[in-house]
Amino acid sequence: HKLILLLVGLLATIFFIPFRNIFSFIFSIILAVAWVGVSFIIFWKVGIWMYAFEHVLLILMLFLFSGMYSFFFVEKEKTKFYNLAIYDGLTGLINIRHFRVLGQEAALEAKKTGEEIGFIIMDIDNFKKCNDTYGHQMGDEVLKKTAKIVGSCNSSPVIGNEKNQCVSARYGGEEMVVMVRRIK
Question: Torsions phi, psi of 62, nearest 5?
Answer without folding.
Answer: -60, -45
